[in-house]
Each structure stands twice: as C-alpha cells, then as structure tokens.
Write a structure and sequence with these properties.
Helix content is 26%, strand content 15%. It is built from nine helices and 13 strands. Strands 6, 7, 8, 9, 10, 11, 12 and 13 form an eight-stranded mixed β-sheet that branches. Strands 3-4-5 form a three-stranded antiparallel β-sheet, with no helix packed on it. A two-stranded antiparallel ribbon has the order 1-2. Strand 7 and strand 8 form a beta hairpin. It is elongated.
Length: 391
C-alpha cells in the first residue's frame, strides 16, 4: 500500500506489533522504492534524527510530545529525545521531516567519506571457437564495445581462463614495458590470502616485511586494476590479441574449462583489493565447468550433461550437482558481504552449468544473458543496456 504521490510502496499499511501478528501475515512485509524517480521534495541538507535503538529516521508517522520534546519510534516503540535545535517546535512549527508530505525524503550527508569508484573485472572464457570459428571474433568485438559503454573514469581489470587461470597486469600508455600475466592452476580454488600472497599484494596481514614489494609506505600496490582512460589503448590491444585456449583437446572430449577456479580467483582478488567497495565481475562464458572445483561435467563426451530430471531424481549424471552448488553458494556469500556483483554473459547452444552457479548472479543483483552467439542482434542491444545501467 502507499498514499497517492508516495514514492515508497508497502504491502501493509502498518507494521506488526508482535511476533504473533508477524506470523499471521499472509503477504510478506515488503517495500518497493524506485531510487531513480525524482522526488517532490528537495533533499534535506542536514543529518537525520535517528532512533537510538533501531536507527529509524524521524518521520511523519512518529508520535511527538512537544511538551517533553520526545518522539516515539513507530518501528520499535522507543522514546527518543529531540536535540537542542528542535526546542522551539510545536504543532504549528514542525520541522521539515515531520510534514505530512515528507513521507519519502533524501538526506545530503556532508560528514561521510567519499566512496571509491566502482570497479569492473572482465572474466573471459577462452575456450571458444569449437562450435563456430567466428565465436572468438565475436567475443573480441563484444569486449571492445564494452569499453565504449563504460565511463572513462571506471576502474577495470582483466582475467582470462581456459585450462588455467590468468590474471593480467594493466599498463598505462606511458609505460613501454609489457604487462605481466600471472597464471594459476585451474584444478583448485583459491582464498583471498592465497591470491594476495601469489600476486604480492600489499594487503594487511598477508605479506611479511621481507616479502613487501617496493612501494610507498601505507599504499596498496595495484597493477591489476586501472582507470579505463589510462589503459584504454592497452586493453584494446589486449582484447584484439585474444586467442582461443592453446591447451590441446583430446578426441571425443570436451575442453578443459576451469570456471569454478577462475571465479574463486576473481572473488578472492576483489575481496583482497576492494573489500566492502562496490564493483562487478563481468563473466563471459561459453561452456560448462569441466575442470577443478565447481565442475558440472567431466571432459568425456560420452557423459552427458545433467538435466532437470537428473537433478530431481539424483541420477549418476547429477553426481556433481550438490558439491558444485555448495561451492558457488560459498562464493556468493563472500560476494554479497563485499557488495560485489556478478554478471553472466553466456554464449552457448547447450547448457553451461548456470543452475549450479546461479546464486552468484541472483543473490548479488547481477544480470544473465544467454544467446547462441555474441553476434546476435538482441544480445548486442541487451548487453548495451546492461552496461549503460552500470554507470
């Protein structure tokens, strides 16, 4: 429910006062709020008055006692005192947040540290081209388009994977040295501490004094993420030079694709460098995980991918379902805790094992696009909308 002209819409007009009332609610208590819709009231240029128990803000639904200068929180029924600057308020002299039309307001906080810009990590599957040799060309074009869709001040990073996982060092145009590539085994998962130690990141509690790289004291050396405007030329050359995974494929076998190991490396890298800071992992995937943790099916083509009936009936084809699902659920927990998001752009005619990893996308607020080719016109339009919505 919601009053006419109210931006926030609730399923109920009142909150349950007791646990019994909450248990009897047929429709769950929920709120719908469009953050991009323009408000009728101008933002308030001062700190909100918050409940000392539940941190709810002062609003028109609070019961106020102007004689004792107290207000009652409608959520937890805690009595709170008005500050000294509210000493002159009364029924005819109400503060802005108590006006009836102030049911939805925004505050401008001045004493808050500015947040760092969000990051975008490209996680690229190089096991492409087996079904269509042009798939790699379409993938390159899609990645180059993504650079045009992202804002120039965006912070970006690049990882590729196939049989192994590669973390690419980014170099600005002024640096003539080529960027290094750090390669990890695709047969195992990695923690944030292991990633930080392997990549020699100056993260607290990981490296000792002798292992510290030569950087300014207190700084966090980070050559794996850079401002897009500084490395756009380097990324263009990197994307244009991408080639399919060189690892040989045996006859009647699938390619070795370490999706789980690559995603755990991406999650660990973001957790080490950007804990609690918003960002997105943009995963471009062309097939199921056949190597390492999170494996959906093995490389033998004689063993078919599990279907819905296999999962429901717990058949031998679904033997990896429970273990893989638990692995990706564990990664999604870390993603949610840090505010990181995973977007999955899937290029395949067959299954890619998304059911196992869907928690990494759905629980983090990501998007999933599935097409038969990155050259698909509908995919290009949808991909552009997703990228523009990230800004």
């Amino acid at each position: 429910m919601g009053e006419v002209g109210q931006e926030a819409k609730w399923t109920w007009a009142q909150f349950p006062a007791t646990r019994l009332e909450a248990a009897r609610m047929v429709i769950p208590l929920a709120c719908s709020y469009p953050p991009l819709e323009p408000l009728k009231m101008a933002p308030l240029e001062f700190e909100p008055q918050q409940c000392r128990t539940c941190q709810a803000a002062l609003n028109p639904y609070c019961q106020c006692d102007f004689r004792s200068l107290t207000w009652l929180c409608p959520l937890c029924n805690t009595k709170n005192n008005f500050p000294q600057q509210y000493s002159s308020i009364n029924e005819s002299n109400l503060p802005t947040e108590l006006h009836r039309e102030a049911t939805t307001v925004e505050y401008v906080l001045h004493n808050v540290k500015p947040l760092p810009p969000p990051f975008y990590l490209f996680l690229i599957d190089l096991c492409v081209g087996s079904a269509n040799p042009k798939d790699m060309e379409f993938l390159r074009e899609t990645l180059l388009k993504a650079l045009n869709f992202l804002p120039p001040d965006a912070v970006v990073g690049v990882m590729t994977f196939g049989t192994a996982v590669s973390v690419h060092e980014l170099k600005p145009a002024s640096d003539d040295l080529p960027g290094r590539v750090f390669t990890l085994k695709g047969s195992k998962a990695y923690t944030s501490q292991q990633i930080a130690k392997f990549l020699r990141l100056n993260v607290p509690g990981v490296l000792n004094e002798k292992e510290m790289p030569k950087h300014a004291p207190g700084s966090v050396p980070n050559t794996f993420f850079a401002r897009l405007g500084d490395v756009e030329m380097f990324l263009t050359e990197l994307f244009e030079g991408l080639e399919p995974d060189p690892w040989p494929v045996e006859p009647h076998c699938r390619q070795r694709r370490c999706v789980g190991s690559a995603l755990s490396t991406a999650v660990g890298l973001c957790d080490a460098l950007y804990p609690g800071s918003g960002g997105r992992v943009m995963m471009f995937l062309s097939g199921p995980c056949t190597e390492g943790p999170g494996m959906t099916v093995d490389t033998d083509l004689a063993n078919v991918m599990r279907g819905h009936n296999d999962i429901k009936g717990d058949t031998p084809e679904a033997k990896n379902w429970t273990k893989a699902r638990a692995f990706y659920d564990q990664l999604s927990t870390k993603l949610v805790r840090n505010g990181h998001c995973v977007d999955a752009f899937l290029n395949a005619l067959d299954q890619v094992g998304f059911a196992e990893m869907r928690s990494c996308v759905t629980l983090t607020g990501g998007s999933c696009l599935l097409v038969d080719s990155y050259d698909n016109e509908k995919f290009v339009d949808a991909f552009k909308k997703v990228c523009l919505s990230m800004q």
